[in-house]
Design brief:
Layout lengths: L1 H14 L9 E4 L3 E4 L2 E5 L12 H14 L14 H14 L3 E5 L2 H12 L5 E5 L4 H9 L3 E5 L4 H9 L6 E6 L11 H10 L3 E5 L14 H4 L6 E5 L9 E5 L1 H10 L1 H4 L6 H15 L2 H18 L5 E2 L6 E7 L1 H13 L2 E2 L2 E2 L9 E6 L6 H16 L1
Parallel strand pairs: 3-13, 5-6, 5-7, 7-8, 8-9
Antiparallel strand pairs: 1-2, 2-3, 4-10, 9-10, 11-12, 12-15, 14-15
Helix pairs in contact: 2-11, 3-11, 4-5, 6-7, 12-14
The protein binds pyridoxal-5'-phosphate.
Pyridoxal-5'-phosphate binds next to helix 4.
Family: Belongs to the class-II pyridoxal-phosphate-dependent aminotransferase family. BioF subfamily.
Keywords: Acyltransferase, Biotin biosynthesis, Pyridoxal phosphate, Transferase
GO molecular function: 8-amino-7-oxononanoate synthase activity
Length: 383
């Protein structure tokens, strides 16, 4: 039974050019990666500010290890919650203007936890069509009804909200969309949600650290305060982990009832030390953010004449829509031959027929890296 099902699924995956190959990276310096003995300029990292290799962040992690070892040793509800966790939660809450922050070991876990805890049978979750898998999976596995509104269209949300609901309404979106790089119209989405008496959950995985004053992210930038804000630390923070920002009662509720917290080992305290150092770099990171913006502007100006559709994105995520899986893979390979590493993203991560190169830019790139990528793209376009 299982063997046949597995074999069929694998055959179908190969036939659809959908096979996902993990590549063994030998070295990753944010700006460059080495694999199979070959060095490439690196355009597939979410480490937008280069903090994963920042000396102060690495030193803080090492100091944390000397103070607290490498592991938390237990769930936070047993003995895994340290002063480092408490300090990080407090600083995140005050930085982002919320009463409370709760740490999770990943953004995936945070989204699962929040939706799992809130969504009951009579409730409805109304999510942007392109919301991340961790949000949509949680919603579709919950007893609530899942509806999806057209990507970044408040009018589409309003239409769905206009139908009466028995229970609660949770509207779900990302701040900056992970595969398109565009930003949600948060003020309009928040207004529609409030009018309907619902709650808004914003997952700002790709906005936090990168946009807004002091890197406070998409919500701060658009002056919106959702009831639930999830920020993740694997992207702009350069580390990993996540936090939920919310009011006191909601935080108490999550703390009391979240199985994802109660039955899971807490984040290593040394990692909290690294995250505190990354937070400090982000808060004083205007120069890094300016360099990233310059790289984005340089790329967009240079890419305007390419035959592939450049998406309307002013974020670090600059997707080029290629269309078919095979064509996207071929272009990715062609760029690799020219020394540029850009991953092709295919369905089901993106809608069918919109396979793309997901180009990500970082503050660590030099102008010559951007120029080399553009040259490789124009060369490929000319063939
Ligand atoms: C990466 C990502 C996540 C998952 O976060 P992890 O910490 O990597 O598990 C969740 N939501 C969005 C929008 C993401 O891009």
């Amino acid at each position: 039974m299982w063997s046949e099902r597995i074999a069929q699924a694998l055959t179908a995956q190969r036939a659809a050019d959908g096979w996902r190959q993990r590549r063994r990276i030998e070295h990753n310096s944010v700006r460059e990666i080495t694999l199979d003995g070959q060095r490439y300029r690196h355009f597939s990292s979410n480490d937008y500010l280069g903090l994963s290799q920042h000396p102060a962040v690495m030193a803080a992690w090492q100091q944390g290890v000397r103070e607290a070892g490498v592991g938390a040793g237990a769930s936070g509800h047993v003995t895994g919650y340290s002063r480092h966790h408490a300090q990080l939660e407090q600083q995140l809450a005050s930085w982002l203007g919320y009463p409370r922050a709760l740490l999770f070991i990943s953004g995936f876990a945070a989204n699962q936890a929040v939706i799992h805890l809130l969504a009951q049978k009579s409730d409805r979750i109304i999510a942007d069509k392109l919301a991340h898998a961790s949000l949509l999976d949680a919603a579709s596995h919950s007893p609530a009804t899942l509806r999806r509104f057209a990507h970044n269209q408040p009018a589409s949300l309003a239409k769905l909200l206009a139908t009466r609901a028995e229970g609660g309404t949770l509207v779900v979106t990302e701040g900056v969309f992970s595969m398109d790089g565009d930003s949600a119209p948060l003020a309009e989405l928040a207004a529609e949600t409030r009018r309907a008496g619902g709650w808004l959950l914003v997952d700002d995985a790709h906005g936090i650290g990168v946009t807004g004053e002091q890197g406070r992210g998409s919500c701060w930038q658009q002056q919106v305060k959702p009831e639930l804000l999830v920020v993740t630390f694997g992207k702009g923070f350069g580390v990993s982990g996540a936090a939920l920002l919310c009011d006191d009662a909601t935080a108490d509720y999550v703390e009391q009832f979240s199985r994802h917290l109660i039955y899971s080992t807490a984040m290593p305290p040394a990692q909290c030390c690294a995250l505190l150092a990354a937070l400090a770099q982000i808060q004083q990171g205007d120069a890094l953010r300016a360099r990233l913006q310059q790289n984005i502007a340089r790329f967009r100006a240079g890419a305007a004449q390419l035959p592939w559709q450049l998406m309307a994105s002013d974020s670090a995520i600059q997707p080029l829509i290629v269309g078919e899986n095979r064509a996207a893979l071929a272009l990715s390979q062609r760029l690799a031959q020219a020394g540029c590493w850009v991953s092709a993203i295919r369905p089901p991560t993106v809608p069918p027929g919109t396979a793309r190169l997901r180009i990500t830019l970082t503050a660590a790139h030099h102008p010559e890296d951007i120029d080399a990528l553009l040259e490789a793209l124009y060369d490929a376009a000319g063939e």
